[in-house]
Fold each of these.
Amino acid sequence: MDQPKPSQLPTAAESKPDSVPLTVRRFLTGDSIEEITHLLHRAYARQKAIGLDPLAGRQDYARTLDRVLNSECYLAFMDHEQDSQRIVGVVLLNEHEQVTFPDYFLREGVAHFAMFAVDPTLQAIGVGTRLLDTCTKRARELGNTQLALSMARPDAALLRYYQRRGYEQVQDWQWPYTNYVSLILARDI
């Protein structure tokens, strides 16, 4: 599928999250697990390039499907004719895994998100903000007062991204399937 032309997309300097021509909705049965998986691999390639081994950066189609079906999965689509069916972002809310969770994720009133990714060619125009806003709204609807996440401790740029959005470190965590210690971050919603 063709990439959007740069002239068709707002730049980071001229876009606001609510002005980006974007649709965010829940995963539907006909949505492409293959496309989601390839998006994850592209989005997590920067972490792979610095020696990190995040699950989302290497998971196969079956693992993506399992994760999508064991959470509330939200997808972002650009509202351009040529892109209206192309998935440009993904996030999971309250994923249920067959591993031990960080204590903080298990607290009453805490929702968490994972597998957060935006197409690298469309970052910094508000796609991620819209996905996180969707998670925040849904977490509130479920009665939560905090939203938490897990991120690779060595990824300083990603930590700054979340800190700018009000997230603070609450715990360290080692997932059984990564080669790094993760930070658990949270913020009030």
Amino acid sequence: MARRSLALGAGLLVLILLVLGVRGCVNARKERAMKDYVRDVAALVGESRQQSDAFFRLLNGGGGQNKAVEVTNSLNGFRVQSAQLLDRASNLDSPGEAADAQTYLVETLQFRKDGLGAIADALPTALGDQDRREGTDNVTAQMQSLLTSDVVYSQRVVPALQKALKDDELSGEVRIPSSKFVPEIQWLQPSFVAGKVNGLRTGKSGSASPGMHGTGLGTVSLGGQALTAGGGAVSVKLSDELQFEVQVANQGDNTETDLNVKVSVGKGADAIDAEQPLDSIAAGETKTVTISLGEKPPTGQNVPIDVQVEPVPGEQKTDNNRQTYTAIFTR
């Protein structure tokens, strides 16, 4: 009886040790899988960071007509590389605890792929002779996709990885890699991007040229009727071909290119917006930009009108770039 009890106790001990051993092996395998996954993530975002460095170095450099093809080819290379990174991320063997982190990692690299691809499509137009303003605006807009990728990574991927590591009791053993594609917030500013694109086109530095830069808003008329800033409402008769005539003055020391003149008639969701680019204006020169008003504003009431000349790169004084008027439209 005693021997039987001893045998049962020994068997139970062996079973407990076996269970503990199996559990230890399972835990070790889970920890190794988690560490391998974070290491794979670090490799991917490290390559993405290198791509960011090369991409913004390209946009910061001078260009000129003889480099336009080279710039376009480089951007297409970034497009291909970003697609390859996305494919590799999609095929990662992620542990179950990292499922959320994996989803957001793929989303991060998807935003980067889409943004770089759209910029590669838009930049040739921005570097060309026609529709340069539209191309430059599209480049600026796609910077939002790249910035969104940074937000998704920092606000979704990192917290999800932190939780997964905490669940596996690895918080102090594994470092979560950081990832930031857009180096500075000024890359979301249209005037800054326009300066960089102009540098690629002309071969000059993407930053503002030495000397003073500045534009100013001159007289503004609508339908042949001069508008008065800060004064009473001006009566303007509606017609099917109602146009603004906006004087733009270059008050700086440099020729400015790719200016944009905007008008807004009305307010809120009912406002009628229109704009017209000005390809270039020499230092000290004044030019008139004509902007058609495609829709008809309401009649018989005071309607606010906002007119703006967008600042150029390097412009410090901008209080004379914008003015508000009031008109009453009649039939």
Amino acid sequence: MNEIELLVSFFKRAMPSVAAGGSIIVTLFEGDPYTLWNIRDLARHSGLQVERSFKFQASAYPGYHHARTFGVVKSKTGQPSAGWKGEDRPARSYIFVRKGEEPRNLTSNSKRKRDETSSDDDEDD
């Protein structure tokens, strides 16, 4: 199964678990091959729409560290390599909701106009 098939399968299987007003958040690195997957269209075909997207800030999640898909890269001495840090790569988080739905607000303080809360700087929405 390739990455695109994996994302489509994930969206289709997640749909029954998304409560009314709920959302799914997916974060991908920016750039090839991730942007070539066109995650917005993959989700759209599964009955979802992008509510908003924003630049992922690893520092906003204390204790977060990127884990490589293929495991830890080790140096010639067998120690974990510090040559590449996933946290330093630009990434984007996408918040998906069911088509035609708005996400529910979890607190009354978070209720604002959509334009004020959206930090989506994509131009294709």
